[in-house]
Amino acid sequence: MLVIGNIKSINGLIVDVLTTVVDKPLINTVLYLDEFPEVMLQIIGYSDKNIARCLNLSGSSKVYKGAKIFSSEKGLSIPVGDEIIGHVFDSLGRSIDVRPDEFKNSTFVDVFTEIKPDRKYRTNNNDIVETGIKVIDFLTPFVKGRKIGIIGGAGVGKTVLTTEIMHNIGNKKDNLTYFVGIGERMREGHELFNTLKEEKLLESTVMYLGQMNENAALRSIVGPTAARSARYFRDKKKKDILFFIDNIYRHVQANNELSSMIGEMPAEGGYQPSMYSDLKKLMEQLDSNDNGAITTVQSVFIPSDDLSDPAVVEISQQLDAVIVLSRAVFESGVLPAVDLLQTNSSLITEEIVGKEHYDLVGRVKAILQKYESLKGIIAVIGESELSQRDRDDYHLAQKLIKYFTQSMFVTQDLNGAPGEYVSREDNLKAIKSLLDSGTGNESTSQQ
Ligand SMILES: Nc1ncnc2c1ncn2[C@@H]1O[C@H](COP(=O)(O)OP(=O)(O)OP(=O)(O)O)[C@@H](O)[C@H]1O
Ligand SMILES: [Mg+2]
Fold first, then answer.
1. Containing domain of residue 131, as a range?
2. pLDDT digit string (tens) for 86-118?
3. For site-directed labelling of 191, which of 46, 114, 293, 363 has its Cα 20 to 30 A away?
4. Whole-angstrom distance, CA of residue 173 vs CA of residue 169
5. Which of 134, 146, 147, 158 is catalytic?
6. Global pTM value
7. In whole angstroms, what is the distance from residue 187 CA to residue 211 CA?
């Protein structure tokens, strides 16, 4: 190991190292403290030709000014390979559920190796992955290899829905599932582990946790660590992967914390100037390619229920579809609390979902749109003043809203209501028959 210099200054998790060697270590190299090898510093840049700016990955308080630093001469190495399936790891790729040395003979890959953006996924591959959840399969069908978001404010059901999707599709043949906990409750990660174990889904799942109890450095790299691990299976094992993140907003937030430690001037909404590139980089690491598909489901926290928050807007733009959960819907007792009009998918095209499904979405959206305006009119003049046609449409919309409610398997122990799985075919049939039994409404359909 090579001594490369010593610590010049410390600001939170940011450590500046004065390098005294001619050959400067490369960015992303992991440095160690001479006397405490467990302290890991990752070079994130050079603030001056001799000053390596580092992230204190271990968050350890053992760092001190003047400490002698040596280079590991490599980046952050994490174990991969079939033996990691069924286990839980931290942001640095150390196993949590079993002793880390269980994986000492595994293949190791470097988290930070620069990756070239992958070639775009075969666009003619439109395999639909059924979730059994009516509202999702109808409004935001999962298409293999694409990115889907579940967005909503605090406590409106993002985690419940994410877990239900894992429950319903995790056991489909040949899938490898990843779950990444970023900045959420520690307890939730443990509960998920137990649920997966009980449901025998753990044997096809890998979990990475960088939860809210961890420092910002660990919360910011758990996403890239898990993505690197998944890419190993995509590229070396030609696997298709389902990749769940709860919560991607916390990735942005962790990077924001680090940015203010470096003293960067915040940009719009108080976020870091590099928010767009931070996000884009992680999203690119989760792209599908000809080796395999990575289908991601990412929950997105909305601060103050504000859909126009710059981070939420930025994240939404990187996704192919967003399921919007709303507080108003949640408070009206409708579960899952999906805002049917805000929920949107660029994957609803005739080519992907077929003409019948496409037309039904148009009809449903039209009725729901009308319902929104009728609600305002009814509040002023009362329902009896509506024409028969409007009244029929109003009731049809109510029936549709009720139809899209559904009990979840993962909450059946909580509320006693048995979980329900509806196939895509039955779902479309039921929606068609509801629409046809209403006013017929050919004229409201979007042709
Ligand atoms: N579809 C649902 N069926 C039954 N109960 C639900 C459902 N969605 C949410 N809940 C109830 O609401 C609670 C909060 O849901 P959840 O933890 O999923 O919210 P969240 O959006 O992930 O919140 P946070 O922003 O705090 O992470 C759950 O513990 C559960 O009691
Ligand atoms: Mg949650």
1. 78-347
2. 999 999 999 999 998 899 999 999 998 766 655
3. 293
4. 9
5. 158
6. 0.94
7. 9
